Fold this sequence. Notes:
alpha/beta, 8 helices, 5 strands, 45% helix
Amino acid sequence: MSALSKLDLSLKLSRAEEAEQLAEAQERLLTLRLQLGGQTSDKLGPPLCVLFEGWDASGKGGAIKRLVDHLDPRHVRVKQYAAPTPDEKRHQYLLRFADALPGRGGMAVLDRSWYGRVLVERVEGFATKAEWKRAYREINDFERALCDDGMILVKFWLHVSEQEQLKRFQAREKDPLKAWKLTDEDWRNRGRRKEYEAAVEEMVQRTSTEWAPWSLIPAESKRYARVAVLRTVIAAVEARI
């Protein structure tokens, strides 16, 4: 059975349950963040990097918003990545992510990441087969170096069914404040979902390591996913302090 098919997409929370659990988790994360940053302790803690991957319309933006909502914006960096620029393409692909990585006492949240090499670049042919195949080793070595140096690296894949994704796409089309989020590229990617599923499965299998495991989040319920993300980050930090 594949990793994605094992997820229980029926998990959900009511609005009241989400509000109560989010409030508790956000307060705890704020406490930990201040401790890591040296605001409530006498030394800096390890750097914390949280990266998000997932299906289009899987709720990454909403989860990130809740994750950082109670944190001082001076103490956390949120960086979104899209296609590399012409200048970035001149360099080894991992280098364009270096500036966003946190130092000791810092926290960064990445909306998309270096996993684009084995996802969209693989499926859409932007990387050669040789390039994306060797990327699993390159990524594991890169993450190992970061974690050996002390980084807490939390990696999320937000998973929704094909039916739920279509429902969300259609809702975006009808909402003038959200229609900008839906592009022709989103529809095209949806048409290649089977290819993307194969890429995700191999990505998880080959890059979920002892030092940087994947956290696969059932996101059919946005409320459930938001709380699950916060609790996962909290657990990762608590294990290291």
